[in-house]
């Protein structure tokens, strides 16, 4: 499916999301807002790390096929 984003594109999106949430965290007006932004940033970091693992696994699989 050519419209599906690549792993690199997804990682980039998650990094941007994490950065945006960290910035929003510093500007939060309340403890509840701060906690929400912290959770969102943590989730984006987690997803980015999983995408990095997937990319490494894909590279290793491609290397083994050669």
What this model shows, in words?
There is one protein chain. The protein is built from two helices and no strands. The mean pLDDT is about 90. It has one domain (about 5-65). Helix 1 (about 5-25) packs antiparallel against helix 2. Helices cover about 85% and strands about 0% of the residues. The protein is mostly helical and about 70 residues long. The chain has helices at about 5-25, 30-65.
List the helices and strands and how they pair.
Elements: H1 7-26, H2 31-65
Helix pairs in contact: 1-2
In short:
The protein has helices at 7-26, 31-65. It has 66 residues and is an all-alpha fold.
Sheet with the most strands, sense and barrel status: none
Distance between the termini: 24 Å
Domain module count? 1
Structural category is: mainly alpha
> Helix proportion of residues, in percent?
over 70%
Beta strand count: 0
Binned strand content: under 5%
Task: Give the tags.
single chain; 66 residues; mainly alpha; 2 helices
């Amino acid at each position: 499916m050519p419209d599906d984003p690549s792993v690199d594109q997804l990682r980039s999106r998650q990094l941007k999301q994490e950065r945006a949430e960290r910035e929003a965290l510093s500007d939060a007006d309340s403890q509840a807002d701060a906690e929400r932004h912290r959770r969102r940033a943590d989730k984006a970091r987690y997803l980015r790390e999983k995408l990095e693992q997937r990319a490494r696994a894909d590279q290793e699989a491609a290397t083994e096929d050669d």
